Amino acid sequence: MSTNPNTDDFFATVATKSDSGALRGDYSQADANYVVAQNWDTFYTPEQHALWRRLYARQAKLIPGRACDVFIDSLKALDVSQGIPRFDRTTEALYKATGWQLVAVPGLVPDHTFFEHLANRRFPVTVWLREEHEFDYIVEPDVFHDFFGHVPLLFNPIFADHLQEYGKGGLKALKLDGLAYLARLYWYTIEFGLIRSEQGLRIYGAGILSSGGEVEYCLSSDQPRRVPFQVERIMRTLYKIDSYQETYFVIDDFEQLFNDTAPDFTPLYERLKQQDALPANTLLAGETNLPPNR
Ligand code: HBI
Ligand code: FE
């Protein structure tokens, strides 16, 4: 784990959990890449499939007019409303579409392992499902967050290419002591990103799309800031892991995400190490705060 003093809470949390062995999930059967068998036929109870159906139904009702088109279209095509999906089935369709595969993991995996998977177009999906009392809120990613939130976007070729590049960038960042910065980029895009559309702001971030409350909040509330995407600004900005975000960053399209994160970040990391991090609720002088959807 990084000893960089800028490291955000999320990673401190993960580090603590890893060190104390308190990560949720059964890691005893995992291979060297932390991959396990999903064991779909035996692992899940009827009650867990029923809980998935309820989670799915709630989110599916919220997303029309709020999630970006590719998320809505891909989710529909995935046809996973009726129970926890079989990863191998999805992989068949996904591999044809963008060359990505899903791999089952016991839960959070080490940074290096996570980046290795992405760099090789494998998306790690947690096997276990949250419990009933976590219906509204869960800290660690479970199968509902990982699958429902992340997998639909992997059907978009530009997003899919971006995520692979992010994985390669992660492996580089580990060597350059830039992980905290790259993690902020991931957080404010892949997890909590907004995107412009002709009809107004739309969501593509998985952390929002798998959340019961934030889907509405991020687009309609007057409280948070909505700031045009800018890589260096994001990498300077701390984030909240235990509340709705105080700032969302808005991309124009997935090409922007891909293009603006293509450069070598080595000089950027060096510059960032000389600067203080910005609080999560910062609005810089001259920065646009985009209005909520009406
Ligand atoms: N492991 N399963 C899993 N899912 C993640 O999103 C994840 C992880 N390990 C590390 C990690 N993310 C971080 O390195 C990135 O979010 C930056
Ligand atoms: Fe996630």
Explained architecture:
This protein has 294 residues and is α/β, with parallel strands linked by helices. It has one domain: Phenylalanine Hydroxylase (Orthogonal Bundle), CATH 1.10.800.10. 46% of the residues lie in helices and 9% in strands. The protein has 14 helices and six strands. Strand 5, helix 12 and strand 6 form a beta-alpha-beta unit. The longest helix has 20 residues, at 157-176. The radius of gyration is 18 Å and the shape is globular. Mean pLDDT is 93; it is low at 1-13. 7,8-dihydrobiopterin (HBI) binds at residues 105, 108-109, 111, 114, 124, 126, 141, 183, 186. Residues 1-294 form the Biopterin-dependent aromatic amino acid hydroxylase family profile domain.
In short:
This protein has 294 residues and is of the alpha/beta class. 46% of the residues lie in helices and 9% in strands. This is Phenylalanine-4-hydroxylase.
Strand order of the largest sheet: 4-3-6-5
- The CATH superfamily is Aromatic amino acid hydroxylase
Largest sheet: 4 strands, mixed
Bound molecules: 7,8-dihydrobiopterin, fe (iii) ion
**Computed CA radius of gyration, to the nearest angstrom:** 18 Å
**Overall 3D shape:** globular
How many discrete structural domains? 1
Question: Could you spell the SSE succession in H and E letters?
Answer: HHHHHEHEHHHEEHHEHEHH
How far apart are the first and last residues' alpha carbons, in Å? Answer: 43 Å
Gross CATH architecture? Orthogonal Bundle
| Helix count, DSSP H or I runs of 4 or more residues | 14
The count of β-strands is: 6
Residues in β-strands, percent: 5-15%
Given helix and strand content, the structural type is alpha/beta
Helix content: 40-55%
- Uncertain residue ranges: 1-13
Q: What is the CATH class?
A: Mainly Alpha
CATH fold label: Phenylalanine Hydroxylase
Mean pLDDT: 93
